[in-house]
Sequence to fold (203 residues):
Amino acid sequence: MADKFTFQGLFHILGLYLDKIERAFRLDSKDLLRVYRERAIGCNERGAHDMAITLCHKAIGLNGDDVEVQYQLGVAYMGKKLDEEAISSFQKVLKLDADRASAHFRLGVLYERAAALDKAIASYKNAIKRKTDKAEFHYCLGIAQDKNNDHKRAVDSLTKATQLAPNVAKYHYRVGLLYDGQGQHNKAVEAFKKAVEAEEAGG
Fold:
C-alpha cells in the first residue's frame, strides 16, 4: 500500500512540476521543448522511464519532428520492455535522421529480442556503417550472426570487437566459444587466455 502511495505521489509531483514549467515558459515553446527534452534524457539515465515517456509526449505535442525526443521516447519504451512501441519510435528517428547510429543499433537489439535475426543483422550493419569504431556494435552483430548459424562471419565480427576493445573480457570469451564449437581448440584456448588476461586487467 505504501509503495502504491509513493508511486502515485511521484506522478502527482511530476504533474505539478510539468504544470509549473508550462506556466514559466508559456510564451516560449522552444525553451519549453528544450526543458522537456533535457528532463527526459535525465529521467532515462536514472531509469525513470515512465516519467521520461510523459515528458517526451509533452515535447512531441510541441514538435513531433524533434529527433532527440523521439529517440528518448524509444529508449524509455525499451526500458519498459514495450518493444513494439520502441521499434516504432526508433523507426521515426531514422526517418528524421537516417545516420543516427545508436538508433540503428537499438533497433538491432529489439529485432534480436524478437528473434528477427535477419533484421537485427541488417540493423547492426547499418549502425557499423555509420560508426565503424564502436566495439559493442561488432560484438552484437557477431552474436546475432552466430544465432543465425553464420559462424564464420560471427568470428570475424567478434574478432573485430576484440581488436577495437582488447581489454573487454566477454569479447574474447565469445570468440573462444565459437572456435571451440568449430573444433578449433587451439584457437579457443588462446581466446580464453586473452579473456582471462582482460578480466585480470579489469576489462
